[in-house]
Hints:
The chain has one helix at 2-51; strands spanning 52-65, 72-89, 92-109, 116-125, 128-133, 142-158, 173-185, 188-197, 210-220. By secondary structure, it is α+β, with helices and mostly antiparallel strands. Strands 1, 2, 3, 4, 5, 6, 7, 8 and 9 form a nine-stranded antiparallel sheet that branches.
Amino acid sequence: xxxxxxxxxxxxxxxxxxxxxxxxxxxxxxxxxxxxxxxxxxxxxxxxxxxxxxxxxxxxxxxxxxxxxxxxxxxxxxxxxxxxxxxxxxxxxxxxxxxxxxxxxxxxxxxxxxxxxxxxxxxxxxxxxxxxxxxxxxxxxxxxxxxxxxxxxxxxxxxxxxxxxxxxxxxxxxxxxxxxxxxxxxxxxxxxxxxxxxxxxxxxxxxxxxxxxxxxxxxxx
Length: 221
């Protein structure tokens, strides 16, 4: 009888050890599965982080306007712009943003050829951009980009001037075409390009299509 009791004790211990081993194996598989899921999620987040960028920038613009009037000639002027953008993609990328654009034109008197008035047209631009990054494989270190944009622009005001232009004399909406080149080094963004307006800036002056060359410096995150 004692031997039977000893055998039952041994069997109980063996079964207990077996179930404990199975339980540990199952728990290890669950932990491994959870770890794989966590690693996969982290990899996706890191991949997304590498594709997504936010950019803030500012710069100068040189503006031209082909307008001749009995009282004045329109000549080029220098203005400024400030903007933000969201960029996504690697080799091929797209970008959308908004910028405040203060375009300045010099209006020179035809009678004196010396008196000059500045006409500043303030607008909100919404650049919709597509581009190619030739150095996408090292994008976080350096990038070399070519881009084109459609730029809906909404004129919101006109600065004080000596020829009595006001907001009612300016077309409230202009569609621009934009092309440029960009260089990114670490967190620094440098861009240059040209905007061309497909419709008139001034309501009463046909062929007053605005043009604008620009240079921007910003930061990407």
